[in-house]
């Protein structure tokens, strides 16, 4: 008996150590590469280095990848993606290894989504001034071979919040990835509250919102997240804004237990993922990546892109809700267009700077922050 | 409160059935430390089945049928996978702990490998699919009966068919191991195989039987776990539920009732770790989430430390059967 316990404990300990070592020893792990499509000389001009989370996350990475793929296919460029080793626990060294691998494979331009990639990119970009970098979700940082794309996520969040309340929902939820430290997710969330507030003020209703970064630090699904969100739905929350890549599947699992539970998707149009998705707060990842790649291959890098950051929003049609596929009934397309026009023209400007305390300053929305 | 009880039940089921799986193997004399690996393998097989079945609208319409088929496939896959263990342990007389550990390492590797190769993903989702009416349907299998009174709601609302199957199986198999001839023979092989052999019982056959039942149950438990608790994704991991189940088996003293109690206890703790906010008294304490996540595992250590004194493992478990030994 004692022997058995000893064995179990020993195995648990070994398993723990192995995981620990696996996450520390990054040199030994090769970054993962895509197999398709292959180029004849083994060189790939356009490279994508993914953010945390998997490539096919139905969101951020996938949206960016679709841009790379779309452009490259249309223009006959060879392209390839690289997933830094260690998945969700990837370190800067893993990202550097992935970027160097891309350069070894002949990358002329590397698209790197995710603000976490800055340190790695800075290091590699300095060493390789001839290789260009596209930094999605981050700002330029003084290197001539880096261009940055930042989105006004607060606008998409605003539209989603507004639409949800206008649709008739008064109990909302927001669950975000990155543990509260991801600026893009935070902007989505803060915009969501502001949109709900604006609509609630207009309709004269009171809105309750659960707001949490508790689970999904690495943008992944977990039983904990599923149970938390199921608890929200059990408490009467009607629609949850699932803001973070693979976290979507936890929210979906929770929603599938409740007849009337609804979800708002993020980054790309997720309406095809489930009938419960009423709309998605999108940002034009693939469009803007395609545009930047086009400008680069047209030889306009120095003129338009070098060390510049584009802050894309409604004015560039880079934020919004996909009206064709949404499942909203009371909030009409005409209402949406009107509001979108106001954001476009600058009549309504959702606040981008997320304050320390997101719950403060709203009269009609009661934000319940779960820590 | 209803919510916490519902979730406790859902968390309990995989633990219950997998701990029972462990009991079957060990009562027949084989240490099945591979429960975790078998769960992972079963979960993968079940998810794969559900994924392919759901390409056909008929199976999307009949969601529960799909669920049951996937569970069956998971159980069969688990049983087949466990044959690796029983073969090495019975036929080759290898060290059972090492064989089990190998399976634990093999299962996630196989699952992840195929998911990567075929789906280019880190996890296999039982994706939404189109039903015969042309609507997109989620994979959700829960039964919805919110009109019931609270007591029944705990059992029948947001419940899964796997819950009832698991409870049914648990009762049937408990009767089987204590009240049938085969059950008695199986138990005797875990206590003193030479004595069993002397009265004409085929020890190896009994041990194969025990381990195969164990594998089937663990595979089923693995699929039940991902379908009800873990987002419906096969990820090549079951969060150590298999090891927790082993601990519950020891806590339950290799007996069904003890296991049932232990599974409920740990299911509750697991559930508490994610729904502490639902209990106002605990919410007011405002403890960090890590504290609650820690509780089930600390409880395992404590319980094992105290339970080991009175625990009575099958005497011959872990010892390869040798006819000539006395």
Could you please describe the fold and organization of this structure?
- The complex is a heterodimer of chains A (371) and B (326).
- By secondary structure, chain A is α/β, with parallel strands linked by helices.
- Chain A folds into two domains: 149 residues, 3-Layer(aba) Sandwich (Rossmann fold), CATH 3.40.50; 185 residues, Response regulator (Rossmann fold).
- Chain A is 40% helix and 19% strand.
- In chain A, strands 1-3-2-4-5-6-12 form a seven-stranded mixed beta sheet, with helices on both faces. Chain A has a seven-stranded mixed beta sheet with strand order 13-11-10-9-7-8-14, with helices on both faces.
- Chain B is mostly helical and 326 residues long.
- The termini of chain B are far apart.
- Chain B has one domain.
- Chains A and B meet through helix 1, helix 7 and helix 8 of A and helix 1, helix 5, strand 3, helix 11 and helix 12 of B.
Secondary structure layout:
The complex is a heterodimer of chains A (371) and B (326).
Chain A: H1 2-24, E1 32-33, E2 46-49, H2 60-75, E3 79-83, H3 92-104, E4 109-113, H4 118-127, E5 132-136, E6 146-151, H5 153-167, E7 171-176, H6 183-203, E8 207-212, H7 223-234, E9 239-243, H8 247-255, E10 262-267, E11 277-283, H9 285-297, H10 301-305, E12 309-312, E13 319-320, H11 333-345, E14 365-370
Parallel strand pairs in A: 2-3, 2-4, 4-5, 5-6, 6-12, 7-8, 7-9, 8-14, 9-10, 10-11
Antiparallel strand pairs in A: 1-3, 11-13
Helix pairs in contact in A: 2-9, 3-4, 5-6, 7-8
Chain B: H1 2-27, H2 35-53, H3 57-61, H4 63-91, H5 96-119, E1 124-125, E2 129-130, E3 136-137, H6 150-156, H7 161-179, H8 181-191, H9 193-198, H10 203-228, E4 233-234, H11 241-251, H12 256-275, H13 280-285, H14 289-307
Antiparallel strand pairs in B: 1-4, 2-3
């Amino acid at each position: 008996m004692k022997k058995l316990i000893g064995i179990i404990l020993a195995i648990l300990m070994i398993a723990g150590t192995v995981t620990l070592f696996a996450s520390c020893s990054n040199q030994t792990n090769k970054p993962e590469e895509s197999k398709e499509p292959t180029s004849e000389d083994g060189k790939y001009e356009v490279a994508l280095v993914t953010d945390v989370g998997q490539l096919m996350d139905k969101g951020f990475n996938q949206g960016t990848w679709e841009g790379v793929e779309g452009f490259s296919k249309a223009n006959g460029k060879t392209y390839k993606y690289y997933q830094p080793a260690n998945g969700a626990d990837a370190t800067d060294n893993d990202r550097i290894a992935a970027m160097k691998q891309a350069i070894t494979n002949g990358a002329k331009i590397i698209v790197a989504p995710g603000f976490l990639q800055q340190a790695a990119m800075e290091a590699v970009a300095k060493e390789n001034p001839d290789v260009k970098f596209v930094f999605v979700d981050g700002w330029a940082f003084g290197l001539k071979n880096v261009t940055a794309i930042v989105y006004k996520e607060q606008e998409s969040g605003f539209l989603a919040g507004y639409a949800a309340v206008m649709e008739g929902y008064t109990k909302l939820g927001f669950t975000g990835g990155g543990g509260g430290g991801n600026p893009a997710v935070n902007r989505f969330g803060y915009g969501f509250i502001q949109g709900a507030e604006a609509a609630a003020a207009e309709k004269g209703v009171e809105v309750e919102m659960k707001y949490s970064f508790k689970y999904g630090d690495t943008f992944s699904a977990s039983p904990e997240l599923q149970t938390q969100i199921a608890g929200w739905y059990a408490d009467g929350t009607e629609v949850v804004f699932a803001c973070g890549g693979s976290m979507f599947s936890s929210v979906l699992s929770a929603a599938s237990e409740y007849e009337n539970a609804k979800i708002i998707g993020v980054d790309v149009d997720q309406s095809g993922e489930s009938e419960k998705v009423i709309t998605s707060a999108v940002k034009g990842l693939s469009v803007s990546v395609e545009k930047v790649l086009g400008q680069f291959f047209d030889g306009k890098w120095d003129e338009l892109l070098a060390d510049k950051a584009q802050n894309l929003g409604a004015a560039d049609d880079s934020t919004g809700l996909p009206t064709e596929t949404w499942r909203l009934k009371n909030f009409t397309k005409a209402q949406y267009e009107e509001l979108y026009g106001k954001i476009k023209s600058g009549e309504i400007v959702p606040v981008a700077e997320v304050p320390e305390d997101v719950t403060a300053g709203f009269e009609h929305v009661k934000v319940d922050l779960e820590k | 409160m209803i919510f916490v009880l519902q979730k406790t039940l859902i968390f309990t089921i995989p633990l219950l059935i997998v701990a029972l799986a462990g009991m079957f193997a060990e009562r027949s004399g084989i240490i099945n430390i591979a429960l975790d690996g078998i769960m992972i393998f079963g979960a993968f097989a079940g998810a794969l089945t559900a994924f392919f079945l759901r390409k056909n609208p008929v199976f999307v319409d009949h969601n529960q049928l799909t669920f049951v088929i996937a569970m069956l496939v998971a159980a069969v896959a688990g049983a087949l996978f466990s044959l690796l263990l029983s073969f090495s342990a019975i036929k080759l007389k290898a060290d059972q702990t090492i064989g089990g550990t190998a399976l634990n390492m093999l299962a996630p590797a196989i699952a992840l490998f195929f998911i990567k190769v075929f789906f280019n993903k880190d996890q296999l989702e039982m994706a939404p699919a189109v039903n015969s009416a042309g609507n997109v349907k989620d994979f959700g299998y829960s039964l919805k009966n919110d009109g019931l009174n609270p007591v029944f709601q705990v059992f029948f609302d947001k419940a899964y068919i796997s819950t009832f199957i698991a409870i049914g199986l648990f009762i049937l198999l408990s009767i089987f191991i204590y009240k049938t001839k085969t059950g008695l023979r199986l138990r005797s092989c875990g206590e003193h195989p030479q004595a069993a052999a002397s009265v004409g019982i085929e020890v190896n056959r009994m041990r194969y039987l025990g381990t195969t039942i164990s594998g089937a149950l663990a595979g089923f438990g693995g699929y039940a776990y991902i379908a009800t608790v873990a987002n419906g994704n096969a990820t090549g991991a079951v969060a150590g539920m298999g090891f927790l189940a082993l601990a519950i088996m020891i806590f339950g003293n290799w007996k069904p009732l003890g296991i049932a109690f232990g599974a409920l206890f740990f299911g509750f703790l697991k559930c508490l770790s994610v729904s502490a906010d639902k209990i106002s008294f605990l919410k007011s304490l405002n403890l960090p989430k890590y504290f609650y996540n820690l509780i089930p595992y600390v409880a395992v250590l404590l319980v094992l430390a105290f339970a080991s004194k009175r625990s009575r493992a099958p005497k011959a478990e872990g010892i390869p059967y040798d006819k000539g030994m006395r």
